[in-house]
Amino acid sequence: MSTWALRIREGDSRALARAATGIENGDPEALHILRELEPLAGHARIVGITGPPGAGKSTLVDALVAEIRGQAKTAAVLAVDPSSRATGGAILGDRIRMQQHHADPGIFIRSMATRGQGGGIARATADIARLMDASGRDYVIIETVGAGQDEIDIAELAQVTVVMLVPGMGDDVQAIKAGIMEIADIFVINKSDEPGVDRVEHELHAALMLAEGPRPPVVRTVATEGTGVPELLAEIDRCLAAEPPERGEQAEAPAPQVNCCKEGVVAIDHLGVAVKSLAEVIPFYESLGLRVGHRETVTQEKVNVAMLPTGSAGNAARIELLEPSAEDSPISNFLQKRGPGLHHIALRVPDLPAAVGRLRASGARLLSEPRTGAGGHTYVFVHPASTGGVLLELIQESA
Known about the structure:
The protein is 31% helix and 22% strand. The chain has 399 residues and is an alpha/beta fold. It has two domains: 41-250, P-loop containing nucleotide triphosphate hydrolases (Rossmann fold, 3-Layer(aba) Sandwich), CATH 3.40.50.300; 267-396, Roll (2,3-Dihydroxybiphenyl 1,2-Dioxygenase, domain 1). An eight-stranded mixed beta sheet has the order 9-10-11-8-12-15-14-13. A seven-stranded parallel beta sheet has the order 3-2-4-1-5-6-7, with helices on both faces. A hairpin with an 8-residue loop joins strand 10 and strand 11. Helix 4 packs across helix 10 (229-240). It is globular and about 65 Å long. The N and C termini lie far apart (52 Å).
């Protein structure tokens, strides 16, 4: 391991900050350090904090970090701020609100500018979160900008997503339920000492009754006083440990492991690989002896697909190379955030409708209704939060 990487593992904050800056700026040496440290990642608990402006996200993160330190654990905070129009950098409002931790070596706070990136997080957030994880931090807390309904990218990155609300939102609870409310693993009603807290919780529960699967827990906090913060951290840990919380009438025995294919054989159908250019990548696979068996454009997904069979007729797994056909394609967004690489894993199932029904009953998060995709097959995507971190596609097995 290089000297720079060793210093990061030993807790050198300056070395960690230098690496984070290099990753944000695309410095090859810093990116090499990230690749060098990446095998050590996987220990940290990645927590996303999102919600509308004024909900008190920074104050809650500050109190949550204090609670984490009180348990002798370490944390890194990635606070995503709007970009300054003057400098293009982060406005640093979050770091100012967390000054009490600046001299604590067990806390690392990094402000990141969105630099025009939508979805509530910065383009380099995922890479820097992995860096903080690999540095040995127990928790990595990611605070989004606070733009509101469209801040859903955090759900793909965080293991647990906390959505904050405050009294006085009124009908806003209904207005945002199609956006950030659908990604919540835990709801926090902050400023719960103010009038209207009972109303907002009632409206929240009313909105949640329309959703499928188990309802997320609701925690009341007063972040400025630390009230409810220990309970929130316990709920986060319980969620990560997959232990069912006590929720009054909602408390239930743990759901059994779901076998989405109780009858028949589950097999890998294909690996989806996001690429910038099919023309540039296909020659590499051809050099391995693979050949493109089918090409098409899936209009609804805005993607060009090249399919390369890899097995015999009886085991027709394949590689699907996915090239965006438009700037707003999901594959284009994936490439901007993470670069070329594995986009998803697809499994063939004998009865897709039955599998979907069982997954919904278990509380798994589906990203769409079953629909027709490349090659004419019927498919549905399962959110990474339900699969252990990998986007999973389930495909109806051919008759």
